[in-house]
């Protein structure tokens, strides 16, 4: 299971990778690399996806100026940003940690 320590270590070492697709998504969504780094360094892991391939992943939440969700996976040497988005208040509970109607 991914730990916050794993993410902090890899982010602090500059071992964070993003595909061109993710970079394009973030640009379209107005999300900066700084916001993603802040989420990886200070965000709370709110969900684990242990069966994701090729590496387990997790959903992080960071509430800076605006709430942000980042999905990242971790190998032994690198963190990979899969996607990042601003959670929609119409879909997420007010604390942005669970979807409305989810049990």
Concise synopsis of the structure shown:
The chain is α+β, with helices and mostly antiparallel strands and 103 residues long. Helix content is 28%, strand content 30%.
Biggest sheet layout: 5 strands, mixed
CATH architecture: 2-Layer Sandwich
Low-confidence stretches: none
Sheet with the most strands: spatial strand order: 1-5-4-3-2
Radius of gyration: 13 Å
Topology, number of strands:
5
Which outline best applies? Answer: globular
| First-to-last CA distance | 22 Å
Query: What is the helix tally?
Result: 3
Q: What is the CATH level 1 assignment?
A: Alpha Beta
Q: List SSEs in N-to-C order.
A: HEHHEEEE
Mean pLDDT: 92
Describe the structure.
This protein has 103 residues and is α+β, with helices and mostly antiparallel strands. It has a single domain (4-85), classed as YaeB-like fold (2-Layer Sandwich), CATH 3.30.2310.40. Helix content is 28%, strand content 30%. It has three helices and five strands, in the order αβααββββ. The chain has helices at 4-12, 20-29, 33-42, and strands spanning 16-18, 44-49, 57-63, 67-74, 79-85. The protein has a five-stranded mixed beta sheet with strand order 1-5-4-3-2. Helix 1 crosses helix 3 (33-42). It is globular and about 35 Å long. The mean pLDDT is 92.
